[in-house]
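Reminder to self: tokens first, then the designed residues, so the page reads top to bottom the way the pipeline ran.
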């Protein structure tokens, strides 16, 4: 397998930080990293250019970190509430995904990419959950997500109390008919 050396222009998960020289498979570099402008080939000219840009990159990194810290302070006490249809046992019909969470954050005034929400799998039960949100490589905030059931329970189309009331009404109707 052919490998190539590249310079990272942006932080790439599980690969390296901005400005590092890494060795990757040629296909990964050619098909993913280079077209998305996440990296450049590690030629002598590119290495010198990255070294000149390093001071600018460090300032950019510091401002991104400060912005992420400020945003994490604001989001620390944020609670996102979702109402979904659910069954008797609390299982949702559907789920709450990272896209739903990103939309709720957008409604509250936060512009967050859904890929920064580290949700392993969609939430499929009612209850309170903690969802990690990676604002920066070094800054992660835990979002509180509360999923509650909508007004009515769909399974059986009635709550247990409603079923009990219906049973009592049927018994009283049957008793009245037998008296007649």
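Designed residues (180 positions):
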């Amino acid at each position: 397998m052919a490998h190539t050396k590249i310079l990272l222009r942006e932080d790439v998960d599980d690969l390296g930080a901005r400005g590092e020289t890494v060795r990757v498979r040629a296909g990964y570099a050619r098909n993913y990293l280079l077209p998305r402008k996440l990296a450049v080939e590690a030629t002598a000219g590119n290495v010198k250019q990255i070294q000149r840009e390093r001071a600018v990159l460090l300032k950019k990194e510091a401002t991104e970190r400060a912005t992420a810290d400020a945003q994490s302070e604001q989001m620390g006490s944020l609670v996102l509430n979702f109402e979904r249809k659910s069954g008797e046992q609390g299982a949702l019909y559907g789920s709450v995904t990272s896209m739903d969470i990103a939309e709720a954050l957008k409604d509250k005034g936060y512009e967050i990419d859904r890929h920064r929400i580290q949700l392993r799998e969609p939430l499929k039960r009612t209850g309170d959950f903690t969802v990690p949100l990676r604002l920066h490589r070094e800054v992660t905030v835990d979002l509180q997500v509360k999923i509650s059931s909508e007004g009515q329970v769909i399974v059986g189309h009635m709550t247990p109390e409603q079923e009990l009331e219906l049973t009592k009404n049927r018994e009283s109707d049957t008793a009245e008919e037998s008296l007649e």
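The mean pLDDT is 84.
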